[in-house]
Give the backbone structure.
Amino acid sequence: MKNTTLTLICFFTISSSLMKAQTNKQSAENFGISVIQSFFDKNCDFMFDNLDASITSIEGGHSISITPQMRKSFCKESPLRPDMAVTYEMYEQNYAPKIYDMNELAQKFPEWQNHLNLQAGDFFFDGAHPIAAGNTRLFRAGDMARFALRKINGDWKIIAI
């Protein structure tokens, strides 16, 4: 009887942990999609307000402190292509966002994981993942729709771009 009880406790503990991890992953993905949608809504404040106090460069690993004075210059440039009208519906037709936990990122993009040093519970949102070859490119550069996320004080924050 003790073995059965112990087995059930272990099973429910593992199941609960897996469900929490999946819920966090879905929550991070939803947040990432909200950031992307803010590009099309021309709502730079949404992204800026959700930046952590210090942002790490995905490609170089260097860090920069975010100050309120940076808002104007940050919001001056749109991440979207300036040479054509783009919509969120076009985004949905051309891109399939992907979300990676730290282990998945290390397997898929080890050099980025090395720069970011993601922790358990962090996620990497790839909002520039095309549905198919030949998709319509909507961003000035693909890295404008890729960022790392961490839950800080109960809210998702962008910790790397």
Remarks:
- The chain is about 45% helix and 20% strand.
- The CA atoms of residues 2 and 8 lie 10 Å apart.
